[in-house]
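User: Hi! I have a protein structure encoded as tokens and I'd like to know what sequence might fold into it. I'm fairly new to this, so please keep things simple.
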């Protein structure tokens, strides 16, 4: 009997669906279109359920970022792609969550992923001995966290960078369910502590699908790849337009 497993494509679908649910509530569309909530739960309970479901998305994206670095042939192109979509997403992000066309007080999650990428790339390509390599890596994670928090005001701020940094340790292992679970748990709990945000504890549920990852991409192609990148700015543009009209 084959053990149940899921591919990177399945993880992406889980992340996208849960992200859309989360953003529907966080943007204010839930209040605008369903002020009484769903299924008799009332608005408040429905809102928090949607936000709890949404906690699946970010850890999965962090995990897939690490997998992307593991398999990419050119990390510079990977970084430029993240930067391009970060710029493309910024106005839609501000429209959806700040209800304006530009607000420097909070930047979208592509910037978080980009800043988290840089230390992990160092860890991937450094040829130094492990103790010194990990020391430099930890310092780079710390610097990136400070930049994300105080300079760029990225989504998830320092907590998101620390989470990516801990997930980055998976680069030194083969795909292993226990290691994925342990690094994932440590990353999510560290994010909770840094953000002082107890709602992020529900992100631990995302470890269930991640623990079944089989190391395979699943169906691929340039069109499919860029579709997943584009979903983020496109849905924010739609949500932003709806909430502002």
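Assistant: Happy to help. Inverse folding works backwards from shape to sequence: for each of the 245 positions I chose a residue that suits the local structure. Here it is:
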């Amino acid at each position: 009997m084959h053990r149940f497993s899921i591919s990177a494509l399945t993880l992406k679908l889980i992340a996208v669906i849960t992200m859309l649910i989360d953003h529907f509530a966080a943007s204010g569309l839930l209040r605008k279109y369903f002020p009484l909530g769903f299924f008799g739960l009332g608005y408040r309970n429905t809102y928090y359920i949607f936000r709890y479901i949404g906690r699946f998305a970010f850890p999965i994206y962090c995990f897939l970022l690490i997998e992307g670095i593991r398999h990419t042939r050119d990390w510079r192109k990977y970084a430029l792609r993240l930067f391009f979509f970060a710029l493309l997403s910024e106005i839609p992000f501000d429209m959806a969550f700040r209800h304006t066309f530009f607000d420097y007080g909070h930047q979208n999650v592509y910037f978080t992923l980009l800043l988290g990428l840089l230390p992990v790339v160092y860890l991937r390509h450094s040829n130094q001995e492990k103790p010194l390599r990990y020391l430099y890596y930890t310092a780079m994670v710390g610097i990136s966290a400070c930049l994300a928090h105080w300079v760029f005001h990225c989504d998830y701020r320092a907590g998101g960078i620390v989470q990516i940094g801990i997930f980055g340790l998976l680069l030194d292992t083969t795909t292993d369910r226990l290691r994925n679970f342990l690094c994932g748990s440590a990353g999510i709990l560290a994010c909770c502590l840094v953000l002082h945000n107890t709602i992020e504890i529900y992100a631990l549920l995302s470890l269930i699908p991640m623990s079944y990852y089989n190391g395979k991409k699943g169906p691929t192609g340039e069109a499919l790849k860029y579709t997943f990148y584009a979903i983020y700015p496109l849905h924010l543009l739609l949500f932003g337009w709806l909430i502002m009209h």
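A useful reference point when you look it over: The two ends are 54 Å apart (CA to CA). Feel free to ask if any position seems puzzling.
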